[in-house]
Amino acid sequence: MIQRLYRSRFFRFAASLVAGATLLAACTQMPQNRGETAAMSATPSAAPAAPAPAQLGTQWGEGIESKTRTVVAKRLSEQPDEVASVGYNEASAVRRDVGNNPERRLNLQLAQGDVEWSVLDESNRPLPLQRSRRGDDMFRLAGVEGARYTLRFRNLSDRSYEVIATVDGLDVLSGKAGSLRNGGYVLRPQETLNIEGFRKSQSEVAAFRFATPGRAYAANTEAGDVRNIGVIGAALFELEQPQAPSRPRRDATPPQPSAFPADGAYAPPPRYRK
């Protein structure tokens, strides 16, 4: 990950996930959902229609510079703090799935609000996420064939997280079938992680581009399964932070006087502390 470099780190865990596991940290910046529970309908009703067949997949796109390095980290628990997924498809299929007056968001709150997850278009604008109010708990986004996209994770907390990301059921780091046992990127406190493609090496990723299902990476690699095309996944694990320094408090004294101190400011994002 990374371009426009947001400082972030990524790493691979050894199979046992014990301290000292070798990981990869990134200077650049998730398979099928395993953790979300379907919401119950408030009133008895017919089961929602099956999702529209995938009309878009994600292709192995052009190379983008993305440098990484190895770091050491350890999960606090083998159980993830969050597992989430977002579906995607051609616009008309998404409209059919979400129905009239869907719930709309620009990002998802993960790990009790510690991390914001959004999907950006080529202009770095968040793609709208929509969810049916009929009981389907998966948010969906509309893609356009040929367009590039980026996964963005913004850490609003003082905790470090490992981010495991999959696209169409494939791990974005290894290209293998997605698993919670895989390693991921390190997302440091108050930092942002941009994942722009499938990792090809320690210095390059293959851009995520919407494409027809037949051109999707998952349909053209041994580890892929076309049944998982059309879903993006994310899992978060909090990491140990031995000897983590406390953050200095902000200076209460402004750098210069202001005649109108309350003007020109928007609400800052929260900063969750342990």
Order of helices and strands: EEEEEHEEEEEEEEEEEEE
Q: End-to-end distance, in Å?
A: 27 Å
The fraction of residues in strands falls at: 35-45%
**Which spans have pLDDT < 50 for at least 5 consecutive residues?**
1-23, 26-47, 246-254
Summarize the main sheet: 7 strands, mixed
Number of helices: 1
- Percentage of residues assigned to helices: under 10%
Name the shape in a single word.
Answer: globular
Cα-based radius of gyration, to the nearest Å: 20 Å
Give a description of the structure.
The chain is mainly beta. Helix content is 3%, strand content 35%. The chain contains 1 helix and 18 strands. The chain has one helix at 91-98; strands spanning 9-11, 22-26, 57-65, 68-72, 82-90, 103-105, 108-110, 115-120, 129-131, 139-143, 148-155, 161-167, 170-171, 184-187, 192-195, 197-201, 204-211, 231-238. A hairpin with a 2-residue loop joins strand 12 and strand 13. The radius of gyration is 20 Å and the shape is globular. The two termini are 27 Å apart. Residues 1-23, 26-47 and 246-254 have low confidence and may be disordered.
